[in-house]
């Protein structure tokens, strides 16, 4: 039996691939591991069977035999550790790749999610116009730092690895914000990630779920 992950039955991003099952799907595709997906409604995500897998009632989760995991970072790391292709063999390079995964999730993703949430849910607030530039500047600060480190390189540290996979999925949320245009190296980095055949297979799989859910 292949591992099973959970994903939205109908993703609020309308198939843009910003939901966090996308990074897990991409990791599976990079290493060539088939997987099953169990689709969940928002209501089902908050019910006891799913809460037993993820106490926060979120997707994605991962089940394989008697192992159940939540947190997309932990799931991608687990996949990367058990298959060739996403982590370097050299111990130090491997540790650095994992550090980039953490950087994506704990240093770069928070201001991006904060901005996305404000744009989605706070537009009608009196303080929105004042808060928006501050949130954008926090994202710009990270993009500037990342851009300086990436320079002209294709990937963050040597060959493509799980650190890049995670970073690209985090940065993609900015695709329609206009902010990536200010950092051409980062914009090209994201496109490079999105151009990988494994990314495309993962993207198409999650888009097919959204299209099926939207059919009358
Ligand atoms: N830190 C968690 C975040 C998971 C998360 O925020 N999942 C979103 C979808 S991308 C979700 O389930 N949202 C619905 C909710 O929180 O009710 C991870 O990386 O897995």
What do these coordinates show?
- Helices cover 57% and strands 8% of the residues.
- It has 216 residues and is an alpha+beta fold.
- It is globular, with a radius of gyration of 17 Å.
- The protein folds into two domains: 4-85 and 198-214, 3-Layer(aba) Sandwich (Glutaredoxin); 91-196, Up-down Bundle (Glutathione S-transferase Yfyf (Class Pi), Chain A, domain 2), CATH 1.20.1050.
- It contains nine helices and four strands, in the order E-H-E-H-H-E-E-H-H-H-H-H-H.
- Helix 1 (21-31) crosses helix 9.
- The chain has a four-stranded mixed beta sheet.
- The chain has helices spanning 21-31, 42-45, 48-51, 72-82, 91-121, 128-150, 162-171, 184-194, 197-214, and strands at 4-8, 36-40, 61-64, 67-70.
- The chain binds glutathione (GSH).
């Amino acid at each position: 039996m292949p591992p099973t992950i959970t994903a939205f039955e109908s993703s609020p991003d309308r198939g843009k691939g910003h939901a966090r099952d996308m990074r897990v799907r991409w990791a599976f595709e990079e290493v060539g591991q088939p997987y099953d997906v169990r689709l969940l409604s928002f209501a089902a995500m908050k019910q006891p069977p799913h809460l037993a897998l993820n106490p926060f009632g979120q997707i994605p989760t991962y089940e394989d035999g008697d192992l159940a995991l939540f947190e997309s970072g932990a799931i991608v790391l687990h996949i990367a550790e058990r298959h060739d292709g996403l982590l370097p063999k050299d111990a130090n390079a491997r540790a650095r790749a994992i550090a980039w995964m953490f950087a994506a999730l704990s240093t770069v993703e928070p201001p991006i999610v904060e901005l996305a949430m404000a744009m989605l849910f706070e537009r009608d607030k009196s303080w929105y116009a004042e808060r928006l530039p501050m949130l954008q500047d926090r994202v710009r600060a990270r993009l500037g730092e990342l851009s300086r480190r990436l320079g002209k390189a294709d990937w963050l540290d040597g060959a493509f690895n799980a650190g890049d996979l995670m970073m690209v999925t985090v940065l993609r949320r900015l695709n329609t914000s206009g902010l990536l245009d200010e950092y051409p190296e980062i914009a090209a980095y994201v496109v490079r990630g999105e151009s990988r055949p494994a990314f495309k297979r993962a993207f198409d799989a999650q888009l097919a779920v959204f299209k099926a859910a939207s059919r009358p």
